[in-house]
Specification:
about 300 residues, mainly beta, five-stranded antiparallel beta sheet, 4 helices, 24 strands, globular
Length: about 300
């Protein structure tokens, strides 16, 4: 009998270990914003990315106060959309959710296997999205997680409940982005404007953080109020264009090239640091360095990374 108990205990322990290693976890949504990025690396966790609409008719957003990293990516017509990355506690609602682009594959490759929520995509890029290294979670695959709301007019009114999405996974945020003390050589900066051909952002240093406005209006999220950043990265990228039209005007979607090298400006601690970015392949993290090649860490807290085309 004692031998049988030992066998049974071993089987139970093995089952628990297997479930843990395969990521069989659940996530409870929260309506409150999370804190900024952790200050120590190691391990892995739940990672969710959501494609967010940010034209005038889509603002204010919801749920962005909980995002650890916000990427601003160019889309057709000189406009921008947001890729919001959540690596901690998830908000109860995020949106407005819009369609994916090929740029998203490059950006999210460094985050392991995140869940990626989006409304849909052009048929021509669906095979690439389906083959990407993420947990594919568009509206068509997980319809129960999405709902239209009356707060905005269509098509800017689709929202997602992260608690109803499949769970993604990835490395600790500090394995993707380098956080630490600022190097020497920064230039005191209180205001920085970043322009796209049909959108503009202004970052203003005040009270220990960067306040954010878009097209002359403070950028807010309904659950947290005006958004701020501890670090803003202006990452200059080459772009190519999809050969097919993405919208009704016949505009072609730009693809931001986030693997390679280029110039970058990092805003942190009321200073501006001119430098460079580099990334060796799709699954590797992006590294930022000063002009002399010194590491250029980010400040602890929310990070905004703007992918700005250098070639139109």
């Amino acid at each position: 009998m004692s031998s049988w108990r030992n066998v049974r205990r071993f089987a139970i322990a093995l089952a628990v270990l297997t479930a843990t290693s395969t990521g069989c976890t659940t996530t409870s949504p929260s309506s409150s914003a999370t804190t900024g990025p952790a200050t120590s690396g190691g391990g892995s966790g739940n990672v969710l990315a959501v494609k967010i609409d940010n034209v005038a008719g889509a603002r204010p957003a919801t749920g962005l106060g909980s995002a650890q990293v916000i990427y601003v990516a160019p889309v057709e017509g000189g406009l921008t959309r947001i890729i919001a990355v959540f690596t901690g506690q998830l908000p109860s609602l995020v949106g407005p959710v819009r369609s994916a682009r090929e740029t998203d594959i490059g950006v999210l490759g460094q985050y392991g296997k995140p869940a990626f929520a989006y409304s849909g995509a052009a048929p021509q890029i669906l095979p690439k999205l389906n083959a990407a290294s993420w947990v594919n979670a568009p509206q068509s695959a997980v319809p129960a997680a999405y709902a239209r709301r009356s707060t905005h007019a269509a098509p800017h009114n689709l929202y997602v409940n992260p608690g109803k999405l499949p769970t993604g996974s990835g490395p600790a945020l500090t394995s993707v982005l380098d956080f630490g003390a600022a190097p020497s050589g920064g230039t005191p900066t209180t205001t920085k404007k970043v322009g796209y051909s049909a959108a503009s952002y202004v970052f203003t240093w005040s009270d220990g953080h960067w306040s954010i406005s878009m097209d002359g209006t403070p950028f807010t999220s309904t659950e947290s109020g005006p958004l701020t950043a501890a670090t803003v990265v202006i990452q200059q990228v080459q772009v190519t264009y999809e050969p097919f039209a993405e919208d009704e005007t016949g505009a072609h979607a730009p693809i931001a090239q986030t693997v390679g090298t280029g110039s970058a400006t990092v805003l942190r601690d009321g200073q501006s640091f001119a430098g460079a970015w580099s990334r060796s392949d799709l699954s590797s993290p992006t590294k930022f360095t000063t002009g002399s090649g010194q590491d250029l860490p980010l400040a602890t807290g929310p990070v905004w990374i703007l992918l700005v085309p250098v070639n139109g």
